[in-house]
Design brief:
The chain has 195 residues and is of the alpha/beta class. It has a single domain, classed as 3-Layer(aba) Sandwich (Rossmann fold), CATH 3.40.50.300. Helix content is 44%, strand content 22%. The chain has a five-stranded parallel beta sheet with strand order 2-7-1-8-9, with helices on both faces. It has a four-stranded mixed beta sheet with strand order 4-3-6-5. A hairpin with a 2-residue loop joins strand 5 and strand 6. The longest helix is centred in the last third of the chain and has 20 residues. 29% of the residues are buried. Bound molecules: guanosine-5'-monophosphate (5GP). Guanosine-5'-monophosphate binds next to strand 5, strand 6 and helix 4. The site of guanosine-5'-monophosphate has 14 residues, from strand 5, strand 6 and helix 4.
């Protein structure tokens, strides 16, 4: 039996509700999940904690880590770098944990190429529509108007990449979305355990 964990790849535009969904998924012990905390050069938002939400570092340090091949994948998103630490993911996969990566589409495609398809469960979360997304971003009040525009522009590009993902889920009703994703992960994990 293959005891390695799987990568649960979750993408979707900014404001679609990924953070809330993942928080709920992590409460479900049956899924045996662990969250990969990313590293970024973005400034922390109010309420964000270093080492919990992200590892916040400066550009120079990020570029040093790229050169030293510390990242499994990395990408620029609007004006900042974001990356997944290689060591943490590998260690947990070996332990049999299913590792959640909440990353944008460029990094996600790198992961899909690096790992065999059976080791990756890729899920793209879509908003009901772009107007809804802007409302959610404005309500969140974490970004300036100009940054919201950039994130909406990027959201359109990201949604065009959704076809690359095995599963696409529209987040209309949060509770239903969580249930759907739990079902997907559960099905995929059991498939693997029976091999
Ligand atoms: P935010 O600034 O809203 O926290 O994140 C912006 C975007 O960066 C989101 O789409 C998020 O999924 C993505 N992101 C977060 N961490 C990583 C990472 O480690 N790698 C990549 N490629 N994208 C990431």
């Amino acid at each position: 039996m293959d005891t390695r964990g799987r990568i649960i790849l979750i993408s979707g535009p900014s404001g679609v509700g990924k953070g809330t969904i993942i928080k709920e998924l992590l409460k479900n012990d049956n899924l045996n999940l662990i969250y990969s905390i990313s590293t970024t050069t973005r400034k922390p938002r109010k309420n964000e904690i270093n080492g919990k939400d992200y590892y916040f570092i400066n550009e120079k340090e990020f570029e040093k880590r790229i050169k030293r091949e510390k990242f499994l994948e990395w990408a620029r998103f609007t004006t900042n770098y974001y990356g997944t630490e290689k060591k943490y993911v590998e260690e947990n996969l070996i332990k049999g944990k299913n590792v959640i990566l909440e990353i944008e589409t460029i990094g996600a495609l790198i992961i899909m190429k690096k790992f065999p398809p059976k080791d990756v469960v890729s899920i793209f979360i879509k908003p009901p529509n772009l107007r809804e997304l802007r409302i959610r971003l404005e309500k969140r009040k974490t970004e300036e108007e100009e940054l919201i525009d950039r994130r909406i522009k990027r959201a359109k590009e990201e949604i065009e990449m959704a076809y690359e993902y095995k599963y696409k889920v529209i987040n209309g009703n949060l509770e239903n979305t969580i249930k759907k994703i739990e079902k997907i992960i559960s099905k995929e994990i059991n498939k693997k355990n029976n091999k």
